[in-house]
Amino acid sequence: MTRPLLTLFVLLTSLTLAQSQDANPFGSDQDDSNTESEWTPLHPDGETPYERMLSLAHTDALPRFDRVELYAVSLPKRDPFSEETPKRKPTGKTFPVHPYGIDADIHAHVSITGPDCDKLRMAWQSMTFDRLGGAFCHLPVYGFRLYRGDDLLFETTVCWECQNFYVPRYDSEKKRHAHGWYGFVNDDHAKSLLKLFRSHLPHPKM
User: Would you say the pTM of this structure is higher than 0.85?
Assistant: First the structure.
């Protein structure tokens, strides 16, 4: 099990104990008695409890984090049905696109902490996710890494043109972890997330 998955697994399985000692990592910082629930888990995809946990932990039930490393990235266009990797000149600074087995070029980077982390988490949770959605392509403009303390919880790249991002998956047939695509609807919620990313880190190629 990779470190981000192990961290999420421990976080989720210890939730009952954590709730009695600390704030709910999946909930709001506000008093729940006076506010509606921040999110409703609508996308528990997967055939096993573990697969459903992985799905929720990266979509509707994204745990609270205290640092975001946000990157403006790009990839050359590629034929999604081709086995050939696009030729490109590496910049020396790259971000992994795990399902493709290649790296995107990093053009700019910013660290985000404090209350802005919860704003980003709520913007992400508000998106309309679709596990089987998205196009057969991926041209990311942003990548991010989410941390809680020193622990990496989640990293991915996001493409608004193809309406997808990648998440960790468990291949039950091969008994190993991998990465796969997850879709979202490019509605007002998705556009708000892009606007929020651009407010923190204007993309030099957009």
Answer: no
